């Protein structure tokens, strides 16, 4: 008994210390609409009972989510039972018990909160989640999870009263499945619950030729597509977390990968292109065939038909139609025809807004159950001109910012943050009903796991009534990693600082291309020469991230593998900085070796520094070899093997380049020792690669 009392005393002392140092703003993401701190705290330090009032299976599922948190993070035994008692209680607002609890607390669940809102009441005796829907129960649980902090073998939550509901009805994330990595089912099983934690309720899967249609056997690459069975599992899991999975099958442009086969060439605007032609009626039959199968496996209320960047429209088979109808009418008539073909499925049709926004006078002709999705990824101050044509035409509108990950070593949040914040702000002001936060892989090197900061930021902007980036940043480490402090946020900020430094120096951010320029080609010498002033600070910043990760990685109580892309990006930036330094240094040394009258022993000493067992060339070869292994492991950690070979060959080519340069310098050094002359270092890349 004395030991038990001593333990309680220590716990209370710890709690008092934590309360004194606790931040005035709770670390919650998204942040609730109404929150009132009550004083005191709920302490759970023994077996916890979660009471679920209703018999609804989804409410019990939400209780299981909370039980897993308390078990894994706080190490408490938990049981779930049906009823009105327990340290934690999940109650429907329309029940007698729910009405009593709301009345006693002096709060109500407003009409706007009926679909997804909740009330959360935490007192020193009990935590209660009250909601009118299963989604609301889950979202209340997700907030409660973040309120609990582990402390001296207990879970502690500050007493608080929260009334919360979303600013936007639809809060979506798009996953690019067509230009590189396709997440494994194991990754979907991890990611879908995490998306729900941020109260995301729509997941758009972007397909070009990456859905395995049974009625189109030559469409997809074996092993490179989501199968119907996988889609069924993804949709089922998402429904458990109140996430609607939306298939986005391109139905106009961006179809080259699927339409390369000879049998499809009669459907295209131009042979071997990627644009279906409105001049070919059979193209609509083809679209109908795809969506007939998608409808079987994606039962939600939406289809997304894509229809962006139809640049080649009117340049081939539909040229005469465009002359007769006009470019805008040709485009809009075709997406109307697509929508008409999909009417039997009773879905709302989303379409990208980049083409249609140029023809505002025609938008009123579109069916009012279509949803326009204007997109733009620039850090603009205003997006009103992109949104207003659709809202003025009476069309439901979602806004589509992006996380700026495409073709970059790491997402550039100098661009993504204002893009997401300002686009959602303007969309809400103009009556948009949703956000579709996008990631794209473009050159194939990025992966979904690089993007969690941007995904979480978009979720906060879509849910919160008064979003705040500093408040979001303050909650980021805890919300994602259950980590104390802000060490992992700091690494995001440091990588973002590298982008800014490169932008200032070479007028471009940290693109993947910086890895792959041939160092001794004219282009490589120009680019790395321009980058040289920033290369040293880039390396120092990257190495700060690597060192900080090593020091603080264990502070992530969960999802430590989501730190891998951050650290790997730092290692790539470090390599790029080193490459820029070495490209310039080797060129300087070579020039020094070629000075008239240079002593032969000094020339050989220079060559040995450039190319020897521990030479500069060997540093580059060894560095990229290490990165290749790390990249492959990172890819396979969360993705299927499909497409990884197309990226690994870039690492292989870079390694081979430096191996070839080693042979070249050896050859040149031998020739110098017999002939006394040196050829130019910078020459045609093909000539450099001779064995």
Any overview of this molecule?
The protein has 691 residues and is of the alpha/beta class. It has 3 domains: 23-164, Chitobiase/beta-hexosaminidase domain 2-like (Chitobiase, domain 2, 2-Layer Sandwich); 170-467, TIM Barrel; 491-688, Up-down Bundle (Four Helix Bundle (Hemerythrin (Met), subunit A)). 47% of the residues are buried. Helix 8 packs across helix 9 (327-341) and helix 18 (600-610) runs antiparallel to helix 20 (644-675). The termini are far apart. It has helices at residues 2-21, 57-72, 96-105, 134-147, 185-197, 228-240, 282-297, 319-325, 327-341, 384-392, 413-429, 452-463, 469-481, 487-506, 513-516, 522-552, 564-593, 600-610, 616-638, 644-675, 685-688; strands at 34-44, 48-52, 78-82, 88-92, 118-122, 127-131, 149-151, 154-164, 170-176, 202-207, 244-249, 302-304, 348-352, 370-373, 396-399, 434-438. The strands form 2 sheets. Strands 1, 2, 3, 4, 5, 6, 7 and 8 form an 8-stranded mixed β-sheet that branches. It has an 8-stranded parallel β-sheet with strand order 11-10-9-16-15-14-13-12. It is built from 21 helices and 16 strands.
Proportion in β-strands: 5-15%
The total beta strand count reads: 16
In which range does the helix fraction lie?
A: 40-55%
List the total number of helices: 21
Question: What is the structural class?
Answer: alpha/beta
**Assembly state here?**
single chain
Biggest sheet descriptor: 8 strands, mixed
The CATH topology name of the largest domain reads TIM Barrel
pLDDT below 50 for ≥5 consecutive residues: which ranges?
1-14, 16-23
Rounded Rg: 29 Å
- The CATH homologous superfamily of the largest domain is called Glycosidases
Corresponding CATH architecture of the largest domain: Alpha-Beta Barrel
Broad CATH class of the largest domain: Alpha Beta
What is the total domain count? Answer: 3
Q: Give the integer mean of the pLDDT values.
A: 94
Gap between N and C termini: 80 Å
Shape: globular
